[in-house]
Amino acid sequence: MATVDDVEFCFSNLNSSCRRIVRPHSVSVLIYITLSSISVMTVNLNLLVIISISHFRKLHTPTNLLLLSLAISDFFVGILMIFQLSLIDGCWLFGALLCIVYYYLDFIFTSASIGTMVLLSVDRYVAVCEPLQYPTKVTANRVKVCVSLCWIISVFYQSFLLKDNLEQPGQYSTCLGECVVVVSYVGSIVDVILSFIGPVIVIVLMSLRVFVVALSHAHSMRSHVASVRPAHESQFTTKKSELKAFSTISVVIVVFLLCICPYFCVSMTGADSVLNASTFVMFLFYLNSLFNPLIYALFYPWFRKSIKLIVTFQIMKDGSSDINLLHRERKR
User: Fold this and answer.
1) What pLDDT sits at residue 267?
2) Which of 72, 125, 132, 325 has its CA 20 to 30 A from that of 252?
3) What is d(CA 123, CA 66) in angstroms, rounded to the nearest whole number?
4) Can you give the residue ranges of the G-protein coupled receptors family 1 profile domain (predicted)?
5) Pair 88, 23: CB distance under 8 Å
């Protein structure tokens, strides 16, 4: 039976502070190394996506602008994972105000990510099902407006959802060192509908429709490929590129659904009315931010080429800096 001396508190000089979760040292080290590695990889890989799309004008397509929005949200999620490390042992050491700021930003970024996924589904639906109208319906300017609205709505929506927590930070904490936010029962239901059920229904229905149309296109291509004239080869090349883009976005969407479903399933049971960032479902939710740039690296040639150009430019830049420094030293 554990005695008072065996209990570890978040603040050793205050018995009113929360109890620290005690684990074997090897397990704690493994958890910290794993999460730190995931955080660093998430930040760096998504930063490469942001730089690639932002720097190269040829990549400023409507679909890539949506991927840019997704990479930005994933980038900040990776940064916030650093703060999640402090919650592994059940202790928050940064105060009540930073606690609610942490959750507020986290909810904004995840909401923007979900909204961007819906926009990606709409983009692929129009590209595959209405290819002739796609250049006029989906333009870069319209995508920018939609992405901006997605982020603005996320900010206002999370402000409403966490209103009580923002007005009085730390009011739901039961001990010093605890970091929790409480969402009302009605708010939880609305959040599940708007952030999970609604988007999933839209994504699944559109993906199924696109899948049927894509299969029809593939069958048409196979049945006529033997009799295609060279003048029409570009048309089939375009269809192939659209189908490949669809398959890549489909992988992104499937991975996204697999990562968010456990979290919202827990929310629907009511067990997550008090949200704790140290749970496994939250960790899986964050892990999606690492998977997205890995998918781009596997399926998008432009991403791999842009990385090579960026790395080559950095090496040349560093080399020229070394040469300039060497010349200065020689002049001395």
Assistant:
1) 63
2) 132
3) 9
4) 45-296
5) no
Crossing angle between the packed helical segments 140-161 and 62-84, to the nearest 10 degrees: 30
CB 194 within 8 Å of CB 157? yes
DSSP assignment, residue 21?
Answer: P
Closest Cα partner for 53 from 302, 271, 314? 302
| Separation of alpha carbons 31 and 27, rounded Å | 6
pLDDT per residue over 276-285, tens digit each? 444 566 677 7
Which amino acid, one-letter code, is at 10? C
- DSSP state letters, 43-63: HHHHHHHHHHHHH-GGG--HH
Angle of helix 233-269 relative to helix 185-192, nearest 10 degrees?
A: 160
Q: Which residues of the chain have pLDDT under 50?
A: 1-4, 229, 231-238, 271-278, 322-323, 325-327, 329-330
Distances (CA, A) of 142 to 117, 136, 146, 210: 16, 10, 6, 21
Handedness of CA 306, 309, 314, 315 (dihedral sign): positive
CA distance linking residue 238 with residue 260, whole number of Å: 33
Pairing assessment for the beta strands 181-182 and 274-275 based on DSSP bridges: antiparallel
For residue 9, the SS3 value is strand
Half-sphere exposure of 189 (CA within 13 A, CB side): 2
Structure-token pair, residue 9:
């508190």
Q: Give me the DSSP letters along 242-275.
A: HHHHHHHHHHHHHHHHHHHHHHHHHHHHTTTSEE
